[in-house]
Amino acid sequence: MGTISQPIKILIADDDRLVRRSLRLLLQREEDIAVVGEAADGLEAVSRTARACPDVVLMDAGMPRVDGIEATRMVKEICPKVKVIVLTVYGDRLLEALLAGASHYLLKDCAREELLVRIRESIHQRSAV
Questions:
Q1: What's the DSSP call for residue 125?
Q2: Which pLDDT score is estimated for 126?
Q3: Most exposed of 9, 64, 86, 108 (fewest Cβ within 10 Å)?
Q4: pLDDT string in tens for the chain (129-residue length)
Q5: How many other C-beta atoms can be found within 10 angstroms of the C-beta atom of residue 94?
Q6: Reduced to 3 states, what is the DSSP secondary structure of residue 50?
Q7: What's the angle, vertex CA 19, arms to CA 58 and CA 85, rounded to 5?
Q8: Where are the domains of the chain?
Q9: Which residues share a beta bridge with 83?
Q10: Cα separation values, 35 from 27, 41, 63, 108, Å
Q11: Residue 1, SS3?
């Protein structure tokens, strides 16, 4: 692996505090990843994205005030270069998430390695827009 100049900046958006904490702990172990913030609902995810300018937002699909799909759409409108990875318990909103601008759509029970691969992969993808 080559030298990492700057870590991948991640914002974690999930209404479950335990999930946010678990993701933070998992990601902090990675040398090339830095967690730059957390959000407990969709509107907070959008406003924190605008302030923190993360590279990637890990977005729960089902959150209060504004759900993760709509929040993804809003994030992509204000920060088109930010990559959004939608995390969900259910696999029934894939098309919606992708149409909203998500780079990836993962089930929350995915393997740790898969999440890390998708985060790194999203950074190297070129935007279709």
A1: P
A2: 53
A3: 64
A4: 455 479 999 999 999 999 999 999 999 999 999 999 999 999 999 999 999 999 999 999 999 999 999 999 999 999 999 999 999 998 888 999 999 999 999 999 999 999 999 999 998 875 443
A5: 15
A6: helix
A7: 15
A8: 8-124
A9: 56
A10: 7, 17, 20, 18
A11: coil
pLDDT of residue 11: 98
**In sequence order, what are the residues at sequence separation of 6 or more whose Cβ sits closer than 8 angstroms to the Cβ of residue 25?**
none
Closest CA to 48 of 12, 84, 76: 12
Stretch (H or E) spanning 37: strand 33-39
Angle at 55 between CA 70 and CA 44, to 5 degrees: 40
First to last CA, the chain: 29
Amino acid at 65: R
Q: What is the pLDDT of residue 93?
A: 86
**Which two structure tokens, joined as six digits, stand for 108?**
């929350």
**Residue positions counted in the chain:** 129
